[in-house]
Design a protein that fits this description.
Elements: E1 10-18, H1 24-34, E2 38-49, E3 54-59, H2 62-72, E4 80-83, H3 89-105, E5 110-113, H4 130-137, E6 142-143, H5 147-154, H6 162-173, E7 177-180, E8 190-198, E9 216-224, H7 234-247, H8 252-276, E10 299-301, H9 303-307, E11 325-330, H10 333-339, E12 346-349, H11 356-370, E13 376-380, H12 383-388, E14 393-396, H13 398-401, H14 406-411, E15 415-420, H15 423-431, E16 436-439, H16 456-464, E17 477-480, H17 488-492, E18 498-501, H18 503-506, H19 508-512, H20 516-526, H21 529-536
Parallel strand pairs: 1-2, 1-4, 4-5, 5-6, 6-7, 11-12, 11-18, 12-13, 13-14, 14-15, 15-16, 16-17, 17-18
Antiparallel strand pairs: 2-3, 7-8, 8-9, 9-10
Helix pairs in contact: 1-7, 3-4, 5-6, 7-8
This protein binds the ligand Cc1ncc(COP(=O)(O)OP(=O)(O)O)c(N)n1, ligand 3NM and magnesium ion.
Cofactor: Mg(2+)
InterPro entries: Aldolase_TIM, HMP/HMP-P_kinase_dom, PM/HMP-P_kinase-1, Ribokinase-like, ThiamineP_synth_sf, ThiamineP_synth_TenI, TMP_synthase
EC number: 2.5.1.3
């Protein structure tokens, strides 16, 4: 996520009104308000429908819609525009021009389109083909079709693979993020959603001549299918939830994960109601606010988790009841030799920009030197050298995770720490059962560029809630990034087992006029069990 936003973000929903209250504008307003954004709503059509049938769609004129835009644009400026039901070709053209204009004045504006074509009770909301919709589709940043809608947008009616459909939709229309929802797929056990996403391009001006398969990444999330009759408006709610999370600065992978958790949470809540009512009933999806419980969150499907699914849990840190506490991350033998005598439980050697020859020599000397101390020495990045020279553990970042041989690290008996930044990466890394998980960057830091990935305390708490409730099954968590002496107690009070710091120690002289050794003692005192107990009361 980006820096904590103080003012409530605003989203607009441009969509139809469903008089039965399940879908459309009603769902969008309930969803958005429950998730902490303001929602302005521009109604494209008044529909006449109930839980059995769609009777009519009564389009609103583009002149009226434009008047609403004119009064709102400076007063309630949106950061995301969510589009649902588009009633006719005139509205397609108007929306395409509107998005084009608004993006010129605000290149960070995002547009999310949830195609609303067929009513789930039967009947069509409009007679628009993909070709008719093309001017609008070419202006979008995000689209959230179900499998059937994806087939038609991709022009591949016999294709069932979400990955291929999403890629084709991107190629056809240049939409940066394509989420194919699996809610209507044939899989009876799981509902799998797939997101094809162009990195760094969300909200950026579209560049037609760029290689359209470059820098693409995909995310896949699975949840158990839930049998409930209260699902009317689930699709609208998903797209609006996604919009609300994006408006609050979450990256696509986390907004996608949170939106799916939001849907699962609502479906779970209505399961008992569904059992009480007969089979014919079609009730409104239940919007339940911010998803917090681990049981609502999806499983991350990834090649990595698949590859290592048989790998046993990594060795624990063997703390024998001690608190992990302060975790200095240092970049040289000089710092290692200065800090090891201070009786720390854990330390990390994070070397950057040295030659291979120097690197091996430094790592060998560090491991040799650390042998005389109880402190657990983790080597950042260089897992082969850590194995070769018998370090206590290795710390691996997300970028290196794909290439690292986790089985080799485990067979060599090393502990493993993994960096995560937000709920998606945390859920993925948790499946690998490392010795600890790091979450960062909690605050802005000058040690490393963490733009767009600043978590804040609230997000840290939310991610911590994704651990199993049973304490003995929880993997210890280390918080990192911008943690100072002043901020340390608040961070530890969230329930993390450790705080990792670089500059709070290495720059203690200039920031606080104290020696690094003194900073270590002060930080240890600030996060001692006693200090945290005082803070929690
Ligand atoms: C405890 C801890 N957490 C996170 C990191 C960051 O590791 P990584 O993502 O590998 O980034 P670099 O440190 O290599 O820049 C860490 N080192 N330690
Ligand atoms: C090395 C590092 N990794 C981070 C992550 O979030 O993964 S934040 C970070 C920098 C930590 O330095 P400081 O304590 O000086 O802010
Ligand atoms: Mg690293």
């Amino acid at each position: 996520m980006t820096n904590v936003i103080k003012k409530k973000p605003i989203i607009w929903t441009i969509s139809g009104s469903d008089c039965s209250g399940g879908a459309g504008i009603a769902a969008d307003i309930k969803t958005g308000h429950g998730l902490g954004v303001e929602v302005c709503h521009l109604i494209t059509a008044n529909t006449v429908q109930n839980s059995q049938q769609l009777v009519s769609v009564n389009a609103v004129s583009v002149e009226l819609l434009q008047q609403q835009v004119d009064v709102l644009i400076d007063d309630k400026t949106p950061s995301v525009i969510k589009i649902g039901l588009v009633a006719n070709a005139e509205q397609v053209q108007w929306l395409a021009e509107l998005l084009g204009q608004l993006k010129q004045s605000n290149p960070n504006l995002l547009s999310v389109y949830d195609p609303v074509g067929q009513a789930s009770v039967g009947g069509s909301f409009n007679a628009l083909s993909s070709t008719d919709l093309t001017p609008l589709l070419k202006q979008l940043d995000v689209i959230t079709p179900n499998l059937n809608e994806a087939k038609s947008l991709a022009g591949l009616l016999n294709e069932n693979t979400a990955a291929l459909l999403a890629q084709k939709i991107y190629q056809n229309f240049g939409i940066t993020s394509v989420i194919v929802k699996g809610g209507h797929s044939a899989d009876e056990k799981f509902s799998n959603d797939y997101c094809y996403h162009q990195l760094n391009q969300l909200s950026a001006a579209k560049q037609d001549n760029q290689d359209k398969t470059q820098m693409a990444i995909s995310y896949q999330l699975a949840s158990s299918r839930i049998d409930t009759h209260y699902s009317h408006g689930g699709g609208c709610s998903f797209a609006t939830a996604l919009s609300a999370f994006l408006a609050q600065g979450y990256l696509m992978r986390d907004a996608f994960t949170l939106a799916k958790a939001f849907i699962t949470q609502g479906l779970m809540a209505s399961e008992p109601l569904s059992q009480e009512n007969g089979h014919q009933y079609y009730g409104a999806f239940e919007q339940q606010g911010w998803p917090k419980k681990a049981k609502c969150f999806p499983q991350v499907i990834s090649e990595l988790a698949n590859k290592y699914q048989e790998l046993p849990t990594f060795k624990p840190l063997a703390l024998n009841g001690e608190q992990l506490g302060l975790y200095p991350v240092i970049d040289s033998l000089y710092w290692l030799k200065r800090l090891l005598p201070l009786g720390l439980e854990i330390i990390q050697l994070r070397i950057k920009n040295v030659t291979n020859e120097q690197l091996e020599r430094i790592i060998v000397e560090a491991i040799e030197f650390a042998k005389d101390y109880k402190t657990r020495l983790f080597i950042n990045d260089y897992w082969q050298l850590a194995i070769k020279h018998g370090a206590y553990g290795v710390h691996i970042g997300q970028e290196d995770l794909q290439d690292a041989d986790l089985a080799a690290i485990q067979q060599a008996g090393l502990r493993l720490g993994i960096s995560t930044h937000g709920c998606y990466e945390f859920l993925l890394a948790q499946q690998l059962q490392p010795s600890y998980l790091a979450i960062g960057a909690i605050f802005p830091t000058k040690t490393k560029d963490m733009t767009g990935q600043i978590q804040g305390i609230d997000n840290l708490k939310q991610v911590l809630a994704l651990r199993p409730t049973e304490k003995s099954q929880q993997i210890p968590v280390v918080a990192i990034g911008g943690i100072s002496l002043e901020r340390a107690p608040k961070v530890l009070a969230t329930g993390v087992e450790s705080i990792a710091v670089v500059t709070a120690i290495t720059e203690a002289e200039s920031s606080h006029g104290i020696t690094p050794e003194h900073a270590v003692v002060q930080l240890q005192n600030a996060i001692s069990a006693e200090a945290i107990e005082v803070l929690q009361h």
